[in-house]
Amino acid sequence: MKKYLTFGHSFLCILVLTLIGCSAFDKSFGFRGPIVVTIATKDGKQPEAPFLIKSAHVEYGGHGGSGHRMGYLYERIGDANQPILFPREHLDLKYPNAYALIHFEVYHPMYHINYSSAGFAPSKADDPIPFTVEVVPLEAVLARIEKEAERASLAMEQLAPDSPEYYRQSSLFEKARHSLGTLVSRHIDSIKTDYLPVLPKEIQKAVREKYNPIFKELYYRYPETDCGLLMYCQEQLKKPREHEYNGI
């Protein structure tokens, strides 16, 4: 009997030591961060207005479903090429020591909105994880789509109007024009609803004063897309916008 008690006592000691060891030595269990995000601009510029970064821990459902935000919801304001710190947090993970998918959204008036995700493994509290996000100027994205529209337009001039290739190029032209109008509208809406409300009041005022004229020019540069899907916008794509620019 004493032999079994000794064995049971030894097993209990091992179990207790194991549990204590997990909590004492694996302090990163279930934790992620701190994460240091750096924004690199594709054009190498250092814009005057700050960037906004939003973070979220995301878990995706089965069958390619959309991601569910599970926490790590933070908003940080900072400049390009400067470290922007996101804190350490215990996440609600199914497997605490597996990689955790953290999603970052980066906003700026003159840069295309960037959506970046990465898997982060457990790390020590005093060992911040570096993460770099590269942002592309909005004008560069628009210029690329403009070239697509121009190529299609030039090709159409060389083709018979009733030929299959003419219809193909016409479709490419309409798609590019629709993308231009939609991109600008959505960008302005995002800056108005996602970016500006997070900024201090004095910075909001400065951003509106500087970028409203720029956004107004962009808005009227491209065709109307309030008609919705491309198939409903074919007539509007041939002419400038008619809706009034409401500002940010």
Report on the architecture of this protein:
- This is Lipoprotein.
- With 248 residues, the chain is an alpha+beta fold.
- It has two domains: 28-135, Immunoglobulin-like (Sandwich); 138-238.
- It has four helices and nine strands.
- It has helices spanning 2-25, 138-157, 164-195, 201-221, and strands at 31-32, 35-41, 51-60, 67-78, 84-86, 89-90, 100-108, 111-120, 129-135.
- The protein has a four-stranded antiparallel beta sheet. Strands 5-2-9 form a three-stranded mixed beta sheet, with no helix packed on it. Strands 1-6 form a two-stranded antiparallel sheet.
- A hairpin with a 2-residue loop joins strand 7 and strand 8.
- Helix 2 (138-157) packs antiparallel against helix 3 (164-195) and helix 3 runs antiparallel to helix 4.
- The longest helix has 32 residues, at 164-195.
- It starts with a helix and ends in a 27-residue tail after the last helix.
